[in-house]
Amino acid sequence: MVKNKKTFGRIVENLVELKDTSEMMLDLAYSSLLLKSKSLAEEVQFLEEHMDDLHTELELLVLSCGFNSKESKDFLGLIRLGLFTETIADAAAQIAELVLRGIEPHPVLKMAIEEAEKSVVRVTVPKKSKLIGQTIKKANIPEETGMWILAIRRGNRWIRPRPKVIIEAKDTLIASGYADGEKDFIKLIKD
């Protein structure tokens, strides 16, 4: 297959990041719509630019593999996978654009948002939080609050909240869940 295993590993890492980032962008875009949050919508736009760079990097990696003519069909599939994630990212950016331009959503969507029992909340982890150093899994956030972490902002990076991700001071956690769990979530993070 690929002559260079290191290059193959980079292709896999790139595809995983493309997939994770596009999924997170959808979560953030819908959250920006629910919260009418321009700052979340701006993050989606920032991530869309990042996706463009990732997709270009994937294509260059795949094209530099030196595959033979029999392998070309498989490698074309990798490029197409990258393109699909880019399409998802573009759709998320279009949702965020509604928020940035101050355009009201369709009346039916607006009613659905208003009737939804779910809420989205952002909390920055203070330096004294008891969750610092714990993994997402060990923190038991869904069990304790009924809220699920959608994304973590750490400095200039967005992180998909995998079970083994360790919570750090100054992380901004964006979570979604039933509205009655919002206060419990904030309390858990800040204590």
Please describe the biggest sheet, giving its number of strands, its sense, and whether it closes into a barrel: 4 strands, antiparallel
Please report the distance between the alpha carbons of the first and last residues. Answer: 52 Å
CATH fourth-tier homologous superfamily of the largest domain: Phosphate transport system protein phou homolog 2, domain 2
CA-atom Rg in angstroms: 19 Å
Counted up, domains total 2
Helix share, percent: 55-70%
The residue ranges in which pLDDT falls below 50 over 5 or more consecutive positions are none
Determine the structural class based on helices, strands and strand pairing: alpha+beta
Q: In what order do the strands lie side by side in the largest sheet?
A: 1-4-2-3
Overall number of strands: 4
List the helices and strands and how they pair.
Elements: H1 5-35, H2 38-63, H3 72-100, H4 107-115, E1 118-124, H5 136-139, H6 141-145, E2 147-154, E3 157-159, E4 172-178, H7 182-190
Antiparallel strand pairs: 1-4, 2-3, 2-4
Helix pairs in contact: 1-2, 1-3, 2-3
